[in-house]
Design goal:
The complex is a heterodimer of chains A (739) and B (243). Chain A has a domain of 337 residues: Na+/H+ antiporter like fold, CATH 1.20.1530. With 739 residues, chain A is mainly α. Chain A starts with a helix and ends in a 17-residue tail after the last helix. Chain B has a single domain, classed as EF-hand (Recoverin, domain 1), CATH 1.10.238.10. The longest helix of chain B is centred in the C-terminal third of the chain and has 23 residues. Classes of the chains: A mainly alpha (739), B alpha+beta (243). Chains A and B meet through helix 20, helix 21, helix 22 and helix 23 of A and helix 3, helix 6 and helix 7 of B. Chain A: It is a multi-pass membrane protein. Chain A: One of its GO terms (molecular function) is sodium:proton antiporter activity. Chain A: This is Sodium/hydrogen exchanger.
């Protein structure tokens, strides 16, 4: 019901605009001064208005907000209805909503706003591209760069000329080629929207997506080229040659502009240590400037934006705080999500709004030709590409790549920018039809097809430190082998680039010690950070999806002489200290100090329910923390959780000599603590059964033994850190650190 | 002993040519294209013909052997953090697939090629079993690089050393962190492969099966390869035959 109200409000506001200054939508519409304000100025002095209605003053922002709110409410609505969103991709639903809204507006009699090209290119498109570029997975992208470039450049050229050429009969050649160039480009927005939901494997995703990003240069060149010549009427060889040159200028220029802004952004972030709050803004603004600067010269804005994001990211991430990183991530996701939604809705509205020139043959032929040319292009190019690839593209892969060639709003906007009116309507109609066809038909059917063909899905891999170690190891190994053979291959140059990066670039762009931090350590730190965050969150009863594993440090460390069951020698004073802490912090539970020590044990066979829960959580925490290894803290900022809680725990748990000094809150314990630690974790045979019991998600079970005091202390420390009072209903299984 | 490559894609020849290329281990590559009759001469020289995806051979290398110093003197390797392990791998008898252990003092061309054959890429025609075998072979190679004492497992000490080597070019930061990273990695292997260990159990070390398991996401058969020039790798295969 509220949706309906909103819709009505929106439509009313839109129709209202006809009577007043129209700034939204089609700029060609005539504007006139509103007559309302005149009426009150004549005559006598009126009484002071206590409450008056000044809609016009806030009209523009209100409209914008209403549109965005509508878009987001629609998006929300779809996800509440799970059945629909499983079958139909979101983009289809949004277009449908746009159609509805447009229909309503038209029915009311107002003029629906079309998808203004300026709005699209300057406000709606950049967030999406920046989001894509900033989070572009670099490794698969660079590994497949050759393939992606071939598809993007040669594929798009082939599409454009094929479609344009085949349509020669309908219109004159140049217009056809112009049309071909508009319709041939695969659209990143549509591809993102559809592929996001089907979760195919990384390779295919990056192929189609990379192609959609990089074909922008080709599109820009072809579009401008044919637009110019459509007026001139003829194309000479010199023009064609200039076109080729233009292509290189456009793409390389775009990339260079982006790279420059990226480096500027990285350099700026070096100095933001004291003004953390504005860090994200630098990232956004530099990227946007890169886009706009490229657009000034008619270079490829998309490539510039991608280059900026890619160049900036590693350095910026090393410099900014964790919060800023999260902010950047979420803002980008948010903006791109809103933009995407708005784009699709506007597509729907424009369909209803725009003037149409429906020509059956033209449209049908266009659709068929698009499909045919795409399939032919992909097959032909793959045949050639496979000769140079190591991991060949199978027929299934080719099918998905061909089927994933969706057209979208960029094509529409480019068509919109055309000035020739009768052609324009014809083209627009055809473009819209193609877009609808690809988004609806292909978008809806790609998911079942992926299932049917059993295409490899994206593997859900959490970061694995072993994989990272071995990836690095392999890199060095292969570089070494290439060096031995004297062969200057792929790895050799990559290694050279990395060393150049490390020696010069990082030093300039990254602040402080982190400039010399090797990648493996950064990765490790990131994982620790993630684990710390997860641990903090789990303290507030979030569920962690982890594998049950009872392996902890003690299982892999050579205990040496301590392998046998050692008699612990925890000092009395320490024990007393622990008891005091326990007493102070545990709520309403009976204190039990479990230690397998020479001292008396206070074994109480009857437990509290809360105690059991408490113990469960304690054991989990203990397990997690025993997996928790910290790299000695450097001057970089780390969340306080890390410093206070875990390092002190780690003191206890290390079996090695603590040669690395840790600035922990507690005084570093002397070496005799090691056998302590060993013994504390050495358990009686009941422990495994306890753990076994813990693993059954059940209600409280009576346990014979409680875990020892160390865990209680851990728990306390943790609860103090998290400022969480007492036991929680934390029934999840624990997990090992990294699996 | 000879390396023969059938090069189908050679641009200017119409039919399949056999060509040999040569490499000088110490300095740089020399390339020599030998027409077929010369190759026949070579074939007559030795009893073993080794086909391999790596196509390097030197004229006098046939007669000489290389020791560790020769390899260590390669200037380009100086920047490589794991250079000792790479060189060690060439001299490791386990990589020769003849069920021997220990290490050579000197290697000849045959041993060199055998090691290089671990870096073949798979082709479109490689079947699934062949891929599996390839992957095992490559993983075995990596495993041998880590398992220096050849007891069949990578113990914590060995893994630590490996990570330390990897970070050896990163100065003090690297060394401190290496131990922690190695420990965490070991823990990860243990918890993925043997999730339910009693606290008294001791995880001896990473066995080959565990190693395979932990790295199965990396698709080793496609990653661990060297692409030499633009020779068409589809026509290369590795095997041994006497002629």
């Amino acid at each position: 019901p509220w949706l309906l109200v909103l819709l009505i409000l929106l439509c009313w506001s839109v129709t209202d605009t006809k009577r007043v200054n129209e700034t939204w939508g089609n700029p060609a519409r005539a504007t006139q001064d509103d007559p309302h304000h005149q009426t009150n100025s004549t005559g006598h002095k009126k009484a002071f208005p206590v409450l008056s209605f000044h809609y016009e003053e806030v009209k523009k922002p209100l409209e914008i907000s209403l549109w965005i709110l509508l878009a987001l409410l629609m998006k929300l609505g779809f996800h509440i209805i799970p059945r629909v969103s499983n079958v139909v991709p979101e983009s289809c639903l949004l277009i449908f909503v746009g159609l509805l809204v447009g229909g309503i507006i038209k029915a009311i009699g107002g003029e629906a706003p079309g998808l203004d090209a300026k709005l699209f290119f300057y406000y709606l498109l950049p967030p999406i591209i920046l989001d894509a570029g900033y989070f572009l997975p670099i490794r698969p992208f660079t590994e497949n760069l050759g393939t992606i470039l071939v598809f993007a450049v040669v594929g798009t050229l082939w599409n454009a000329f094929f479609i344009g050429g085949m349509m020669y009969g309908v219109l004159d050649l140049l217009s056809c080629l112009l049309f071909g160039s508009i319709i041939s480009a695969v659209d990143p927005v549509a591809v993102l929207a559809v592929f996001e939901e089907i979760h195919i494997n990384e390779l295919l995703h990056i192929l189609v997506f990379g192609e959609s990003l990089l074909n922008d240069a080709v599109t820009v060149v072809l579009y401008h080229l044919f637009k110019e010549f459509a007026h001139a009427g003829t194309v000479t060889v010199a023009d064609a040659f200039l076109g080729v040159v233009c292509f290189f200028v456009v793409s390389l220029g775009g990339i260079m502009v982006g790279a420059i802004y990226g480096i500027l952004g990285a350099f700026t972030s070096r100095f933001t240590a004291h003004t953390r709050v504005i860090e994200p803004l630098f990232v956004f603004l530099y990227s946007y400037m890169a886009y706009l600067s490229a657009e000034v010269f008619h270079l490829s804005g998309i490539m510039s934006l991608i280059a900026c994001g890619v160049v900036m990211r590693p350095y910026v991430e090393a410099n900014i705080s964790h919060k800023s990183y999260t902010t950047i991530k979420y803002f980008l996701k948010m903006w791109s999500s809103v933009s995407e939604t708005l784009i699709f809705i506007f597509l729907g509205v424009s369909t209803v709004a725009g003037p149409h020139a429906w020509n059956w043959t033209f449209v049908i032929v266009t659709v068929i030709l698009c499909l045919v040319s795409r399939v032919l292009g992909v097959i032909g190019l793959t045949y050639i590409i496979n000769k140079f690839r190591i991991v060949k593209l199978t027929k299934k892969d080719q099918f998905i790549v061909a089927y994933g060639g969706l057209r979208g709003a960029i094509a529409f906007s480019l068509g919109f920018l055309l000035t020739d009116s009768d052609m324009k309507n014809l083209f627009l109609t055809a473009i819209i039809t193609v877009i609808f066809f690809t988004v609806f038909v292909q978008g809806m059917t790609i998911r079942p097809l992926v299932e049917l063909l059993a295409v490899k899905k994206k593997k859900e891999s959490k970061g694995s430190i072993n994989e990272e170690i071995h990836t690095q190891f392999l890199d060095h190994l292969l570089t070494g082998i290439e060096d031995i053979c004297g062969h200057y291959g792929h790895h050799h140059w990559k290694d050279k680039l990395n060393r150049f990066n490390k020696a010069y670039v990082k030093r300039w762009l990254i602040r402080g010690e982190r400039s010399t931090e090797p990648q493996l350590i950064s990765f490790y730190n990131k994982m620790e950070m993630k684990q710390a965050m997860m641990l903090v969150e789990s303290g507030s009863a979030a569920k962690l999806p982890t594998i049950v594993s009872s392996v902890s440090m003690q299982n892999i460390q050579t205990k040496g002489p301590a392998r046998r069951r050692a008699i612990p020698s925890i000092s009395k004073s320490r024990e007393e200290e622990i008891r005091k802490i326990l007493r102070a912090n545990l709520q309403k539970t009976r204190q039990r100090l479990r230690s397998y020590s020479r001292h008396d044990l206070l074994i109480d066979p009857f437990e509290d329910v809360s105690e059991v829960r408490f113990r469960k959580q304690r054991v989990e925490m203990e397990r997690r923390m025993s997996h928790y290894l910290t790299v000695p803290a450097k001057s970089q900022e780390t969340p306080p959780v890390r410093k206070v809680c875990f390092e002190s725990e780690h003191q206890i748990y290390t079996y090695d000599d603590s040669e690395s000094p840790r600035g922990s809150a507690q005084a570093s314990r002397p070496h005799p603590s090691s056998p302590d630690a060993v013994s504390l974790l050495d358990e009686s045979p009941q422990r495994p059964s306890q753990r076994g019991a813990l693993r059954t998600r059940g209600d409280a079970e009576v346990r014979a033994k409680a875990p020892d005091d160390k865990e209680e202390q851990d728990q306390l420390k943790l609860s103090r850190c998290l400022s969480d009072p007492g036991p929680k209903k934390d029934e999840e299984e624990d997990g090992s650190f990294l699996s | 002993m000879l390396l023969v490559i059938e090069h189908k894609f050679f641009p200017f020849k119409k039919k399949r040519e056999q060509m040999c290329m040569a490499v000088n281990l110490e300095t740089e590559i020399l390339f020599m294209l030998l027409p077929i009759n010369n190759v026949q001469q070579f074939l007559n020289l030795s009893k073993h013909v080794l086909y391999c995806s790596v196509c390097f051979m030197i004229m006098d290398f046939l007669l000489s052997h290389y020791s560790r110093e020769n390899l260590e003197n390669i200037p380009a390797l100086a920047n490589n953090p794991i250079r000792r392990q790479i060189i060690g791998a060439f001299f490791d008898k386990r990589n020769q697939h003849q069920n021997e252990v220990g290490s050579f003092e000197e290697i000849g061309f045959e041993q060199f090629l055998m090691v290089m054959s671990h870096f073949r890429p798979p082709t479109l025609k490689t079947t699934e079993e062949e891929r599996e075998t390839m992957r095992k072979e490559k993983l075995r190679f990596l495993f041998n690089m880590h398992d220096t004492d050849n007891d069949g497992t990578i113990t914590l000490e060995e893994y630590r050393k490996a990570v330390e080597e990897l970070l050896s070019k990163s100065g003090a930061i690297g060394q401190e962190a290496a131990k922690a990273i190695a420990d965490a990695a070991m823990l990860e292997v243990a918890s993925t492969n043997v999730p339910h260990m009693a606290p008294d159990d001791f995880y001896e070390g990473i066995t080959f099966e565990h190693f395979e398991q932990i790295l199965k996401g990396l698709e080793m058969e496609s990653r661990m390869h060297i692409r030499f020039l633009d020779v068409d790798t589809t026509t290369m295969h590795c095997g041994r035959s006497t002629s």
